[in-house]
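note to self — DONT lose this again. spent like an hour looking for the file last time. sequence + predicted structure for the chain T wanted, 111 res
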Amino acid sequence: MTDRDRWLDLLEDEDLAFLKRFVLASGSLKELAEAYGISYPTVRLRLDRLIAKIKVFDSDQKMSDFERTVRAMHADGRIDQATLKQLLSAFKREKEKQHDAPSRRGSGADD
């Protein structure tokens, strides 16, 4: 099984329950809205966010578990775009520091 086959395993139980109800409702968003007792636009938003999250999990783009997690949180509406950018920038800076650290230690600058 490849990483791309794992997208279903990466979904939360709530996402899987929604997906199951969606299939059992034959894809009827109106029926889902009635079943959940919410408006059609709210169901549409939930589906759009689930689609975005699946795209993150199923992406060909190589990314760390951290990046995949924060991108999925953004797709799910749990963090905004600005927060996503800040987290990814901080993570990138931290990775660069870790990558550069061994070369600085071996440079003899502290001797």
